[in-house]
Amino acid sequence: MIPKIDPISITTIKEKGVESIVDWFDQHIQSFYTLGWSFLRNQQQMEELFYRSIIKVHKELPRFKSETSFETWATSIFIHTCRELSDGRSLQASEESEQQKDVFKALDQLKGYEKEAMVLTYVKGISKEEAAHLLQVSVEKIKELLFSGIQSLRKEIGDGSHFNGCKEFQKDYIDYLERTLDRSKKIDLEKHIYQCQDCQVDLATFQDVILTMLNLTVRMEDLHVPSGFMENVKDRLAEKEKYRQQKNKIRIRKGLVIAGVFALLIGLDFFTGAFSNLYYTWTEEDQELRAFLQQDLGERLNLEAESNGVKIRIKSAIADDVQTLVFYEIEDTEEDNQYVMDYFDGVFVENVNEIMSHEGYQGYYPPDLESDVNKEEKNVYQGKMSLLPLTSDNGTIKLNITKLQKLIRDSSDRNGFRAYENMEYETGEWNFEIPVTKQPSVEYALDEVTAVEGIPVRFEKLTIAPTATVLQYGINNEQQEKRIDVLNFDNLEVNNKKVKADMYGRSFVETQQDVNWTTFQRHFDPLFGEKPKEVNVQFESIYLTFEDQKTIILDASQEYPQTFEYAGSTISIDKVEVGQPTKVVISDHEIENRAYESFQFHIVGEDEKETSSMEMNSEGVLMDKNGVEYDMNENPFSFEQIEQPRYFITVQSMELHNDNAGEKVIPKRLEIYGYNATKYLDDVVKISLE
Q1: Strand positions, DSSP E, 392-439
Q2: How far is residue 487 CA from its own chain's centroid?
């Protein structure tokens, strides 16, 4: 176990930088060398292990928090680097005995959690409590992992015998052998073993495996660290620093000058097992990407391209049957500008026809202006972009970028940006080849019908994919007097876990089912690893169209304004003025308790033909669910932040043109088809999948 270090040592390390980290590892060389040898057992890779670990500890040091000990934090990074290098390692240069090789080979066959628990407890020699903290599990879970790991090792290194111990007593084996079992349980176990031959054999072989591990640990503690081992690591670090000083000018985000070992940092490309959760908590700023990486649903890529002083880094790509998410970072290395990608303007997948499905979903994600990094950094923006899903399980996306959208700072905007007006752009050429593996999705058939405002709504399918949770539903609008145009959801609850609906994640699905049903899909936030037993669907609101026809006679010779009653409101025809063009103005400024938000209509001319050319301008009031009004002209705001907004049209101004040049349009009547209205809902539909 690594000796504890005091807070003064931590302060010294932060002040002196990479040299102090090298010295710290040098002081604990035997402990870390033994741990690394459990995974690698190849001298060249061992040097690479220490080299990368030192770089990573140095890079992440500003994020180190005192809630955990420095040795625990450094051990976590060291273990992750072990896992990275152990993929495809060569054991030809290993120096173990044949018995040690057998044990190591057996260890390699264990599952990630099991191996990590075994190595930490029996090789590293730390307590179960410390191992539980590192793996972020309970002490009881550590005992379960040790038990299953010992059983697996027994099968791998044993003589093939079958062990038939009584399961109700097996859970106490480890505590019994470590002499920590409660006295009463100890007596019960010893009485049972005395009478049960199967348990005698089972416990004995169980003990043999533990002794083998401990014997291996003793032998490994005597592992000889080669002469000049750390000097070789130091030389490599010095060489990289020299190269950085010659070739790179690194702009540090916090204004601190950190050693140049960061410049050529080799990213940790693939992690599995329990350490992922702890590791990415410390090292990944993007919370959404961090969640994917912690679940082993993607890998870090860190692909970079630079053009005109703007550097784009593709951090990761997560693909499934729903879509392909690309997480990126854009850094302006010369000025304080922030840029975002717009797939429909300057971004192109060169091989889209070869590897992607055009029938798939491509989501829209507006700029995230509220994340900490995007608010704090003036020259760095982190975002994500949705691409079509892959047609095969693996592929390489050839992404070409020629234009980026610039975020304009605006002090009048409470977000600090003017993201959608008077946009500026940066052009260049950034090309990437992004390797992607499609993650599996699970579909669950649903069979539940409910009524919303008397209109049948049918739930058909639930898809749980890594990037989204997708609810497929149908609406039966065959009745004529009222129909649902838009059904909005607040959240989806699966196994007591709620996920919010994606504001922009709505799509139409073309099916061959009953023509009276229209099918849609609604996207929600991801659910990781959930197997649903019950699904609760929480509605938010519906946007309805009411069929309510009315005809109003228009006569330009009369005086205006004139009023008429419709949908419980008094509507004013302010102007009917024949000319080139003919002008008609309709208004209704009273929005309190108004039944409609807008109505659909057309104007019929004197020749009994619907006006074929009409220009329309409208004015209105934006109001949230609580009745708070928003002036879109005077107060800049983010539309997404308004709670369930409604838009009431108050004025409609029309200019009518005749297709025959020189002829005036003489309006004869206003024909209203129906009106639209939003209704708020709080209904919950429970769907059982059992």
Answers
A1: 394-409, 417-418, 424-437
A2: 25
Adjacent-strand bridge partners of 671: 551, 602
Which of left, alpha, beta for 492 (phi over 0: left; psi -120 to 50: alpha)? beta
Q: Which amino acid is at 466?
A: P
The structure's pTM equals 0.59
What backbone torsions phi and psi does residue 553 show, to the nearest 5 degrees?
-75, 135
Instruction: Mean pLDDT check: name the lowest of 257-271, 297-311, 595-609.
Output: 257-271
Per DSSP, helices labelled H in 301-424 are 352-355, 372-376
pLDDT in tens, 579-613: 888 999 999 999 988 999 999 998 988 877 655 57
Mean pLDDT of 120-146: 79
For the sheet with 310-319, list strands across it.
303-307, 310-319, 324-332, 380-387
Q: Encode pLDDT of 198-236 as tens digits.
A: 888 888 877 877 777 666 555 555 567 887 888 888 888
Q: Quick one: which of 142, 126, 130, 128 has its CA closest to 1?
A: 126
Instruction: Answer yes or no: are the C-beta atoms of 506 and 522 closer than 8 Å.
Output: yes
Alpha carbons 378 and 330: distance in angstroms, whole number: 11
Tokens 């390390």 appear where? 13
pLDDT score of 276: 53
Q: How far apart are CA 139 and CA 142, in angstroms?
A: 5
List CB contacts of 207: < 8 A, sequence separation 6 or more: 177
Contact criterion met (CB below 8 Å) for 608 and 668: yes
